[in-house]
Design brief:
The chain is of the alpha+beta class and 408 residues long. It folds into 2 domains: 271 residues, Naphthalene 1,2-dioxygenase Alpha Subunit, Chain A, domain 1 (Alpha-Beta Complex); 102 residues, Rieske [2Fe-2S] iron-sulphur domain (Rieske Iron-sulfur Protein), CATH 2.102.10. Strands 2-11-10-5-4-3-6 form a 7-stranded antiparallel β-sheet, with no helix packed on it. A 7-stranded antiparallel β-sheet has the order 12-18-17-16-15-14-13. The longest helix has 21 residues. The protein is globular and about 80 Å long. Bound molecules: FE2/S2 (inorganic) cluster. FE2/S2 (inorganic) cluster (FES) binds next to loops.
C-alpha cells in the first residue's frame, strides 16, 4: 500500500517536471514575489533578532550516532551558538547538555570528543553523571542548605532522525518528526537509521549565512556557477519544488539524460529501499533553517550552514552511506568527496564578493523569481518565527506563499 502511494506520488512529480520543462510562464495565480529587503542580509539589529528568535529555537543538526557509538562516548558541538555536549549515557540514551558547570560556569569538557564515566569540572572538581546529575561537590559543608538536585546540568532538547542527532535550545519546541511533517514520510525510503558516518569537514567563508544558504535552495545559478560540472547533467528548467509547513522544502531536478547515474559511484553499496525516482533524479531536502540533504542510493551529503557572525559562515559537509566500514573504507570515497568539494567550491568562491556587494548602496533588496521561491519561503518562515510584530516594518517580508504550501 505504501509502495503504491509512493509511486503515485512520484508519477505526479514526473508529470510536474514535464509541465515545468514546457511552461511559458509560472503557473496561473503564482504571484510576482515582493522584494526581500536588504536589511535582512546586512543590518546588525535584524541579524541579532534573527539569531535570538530563530536560530536559538530551531532544530539543528548536531552530529551522527556513530560519534556516540558506546555508552560514555561524547562529542562537543560549537556550531549551534553555545557549546553543547552530546553524550550516550550508560543506559544507551543520547542526551545533550550545555558545556557549562553549575558552579561558576567553567566548561566541563575542553576537547572535541572523548569517552568518560561522568564529567568532572576542571576548575573546582564538581562531578556529574553522564545524564547530567550533580553527584559530588568539593567542601560541600561550605554551601549551606545546598540542594544537589537543583544543580543538574542544563539539558538541551535532543532527538533523532534515524542516525542523525538534532538539538534544539527551546525546551518547548515541537518534536522533530512532527515538526518536519510530510518530509518524514518521504525520507523513510532512505533508512537513515542504518547509515554510517563516512566523512565530515568544514569550511569558513566571509559572508552572511543566508548568502550561502540561498545558493543551495535553487538551481537557477547552475548555468553560470556550475557550467562545467552540475549543469552538464541536471536540467534546471524542469525542476519542481515542494514547499512544506515550518519553512521546510524539497527540490527535485531531473537529469538531462534519463537514467544517468554518477559513474564515480558505480559498485558502491546501495540503500536497498531507495526508489527509482530518487535514484535517477537529483532531490534536495531542506530542513529549516540550515540543513540540506541531496540523497543518492550510495550515499548522502549532509550540508549545514552556521552563522559565526553577521558576515562569517561555517559550512559543514558530512557524508553518510550504507555498509560503510570506517576501518576499511571503499577507495572510491576519496575521488567522490574530491568531486563534491569541487562543486562546493564553485558555490563558495563567489560568496565574499556577493556579501561585499550587498553591503553597498547599490543593494536595496532582492528580486526573486518563481524558480527561487524556496528562498522566499525561507524568509516568510523567518518572520513567523521571530513574530511579525517584532520585525521592523522596513525589514518585513510580505507573506504570499501560503496557497502554495503542501500540507500532505
Ligand atoms: Fe565547575 Fe567550579 S566552575 S567546579
Amino acid at each position: 500500500m505504501l509502495d503504491q502511494a509512493i509511486s503515485q506520488g512520484h508519477k505526479a512529480d514526473l508529470d510536474r517536471m514535464a509541465w515545468e520543462r514546457d511552461r511559458k510562464d509560472p503557473p496561473e495565480g503564482f504571484p510576482a514575489l515582493p522584494s526581500i529587503p536588504a536589511a535582512r542580509y546586512v543590518d546588525a539589529d535584524f541579524l541579532s533578532l534573527e539569531q535570538r528568535e530563530m536560530w536559538s529555537k530551531a532544530w539543528l543538526y548536531a552530529g551522527h550516532t556513530d560519534q556516540v557509538a558506546e555508552p560514555g562516548s561524547w562529542f562537543l558541538t560549537r556550531n549551534t551558538g553555545s557549546p553543547v555536549i552530546v553524550v550516550r549515557t550508560l543506559s544507551g540514551e543520547i542526551r545533550a547538555f550545555y558545556n557549562t558547570c553549575k558552579h561558576r560556569g567553567a566548561p566541563l569538557v575542553k576537547e572535541d570528543a572523548g569517552s568518560a564515566r561522568g564529567f568532572v569540572c576542571g576548575y573546582h572538581g564538581w562531578s556529574y553523571t553522564l545524564d547530567g546529575k550533580l553527584t559530588a561537590v568539593r567542601d560541600k559543608r561550605d554551601f549551606p542548605d545546598f540542594d544537589m538536585a537543583c544543580h543538574s546540568l542544563s539539558s538541551v532538547r535532543c532527538e533523532l532522525l534515524g542516525s542523525l542527532i538534532f538539538i534544539n535550545g527551546d525546551p518547548d519546541a515541537q518534536p522533530l518528526i512532527e515538526h518536519i511533517g510530510p518530509m518524514a514520510g518521504a525520507l523513510e525510503e532512505l533508512q537513515l537509521a542504518t547509515l554510517k558516518l563516512v566523512d565530515s569537514r568544514e569550511y569558513e567563508v566571509d559572508c552572511n549565512v543566508k548568502v550561502l544558504l540561498d545558493a543551495f535552495l535553487e538551481v537557477y545559478h547552475l548555468k553560470s556557477i556550475h557550467e562545467n560540472t552540475v549543469d552538464r547533467f541536471l536540467d534546471h528548467r524542469a525542476m519542481i519544488v515542494t514547499l512544506w509547513p515550518h519553512g521546510h522544502s524539497r527540490m527535485v531536478t531531473p537529469n538531462r539524460r534519463e537514467g544517468w547515474v554518477d559513474p564515480g559511484t558505480k559498485g558502491m553499496p546501495e540503500i536497498p529501499t531507495v526508489s527509482e525516482f530518487t535514484a535517477t533524479n537529483n532531490i534536495s531536502y531542506h530542513i529549516y533553517p540550515n540543513f540540506v540533504m541531496p540523497p543518492a542510493p550510495t550515499g548522502i551529503p549532509l550540508l549545514q550552514f552556521w552563522p559565526l557572525g553577521p558576515r562569517r559562515t561555517r559550512v559543514v559537509s558530512s557524508w553518510v552511506a550504507p555498509d560503510h566500514d570506517a576501518a576499511n573504507p571503499n577507495p572510491l570515497w576519496e575521488t567522490r568527496i574530491k568531486n563534491w568539494e569541487r562543486i562546493l567550491y564553485e558555490d563558495l568562491q563567489f560568496a565574499p564578493q556577493i556579501q561585499e556587494s550587498l553591503e553597498g548602496p547599490g543593494f536595496q533588496g532582492m528580486s526573486l523569481n518563481y524558480q527561487e521561491r524556496r528562498i522566499y519561503h525561507w524568509h516568510e518562515e523567518l518572520d513567523r518565527r521571530i513574530g511579525i510584530d517584532r520585525v521592523p516594518q522596513a525589514a518585513r517580508v510580505e507573506p504570499v506563499l501560503a496557497p502554495f504550501v503542501d500540507h500532505d
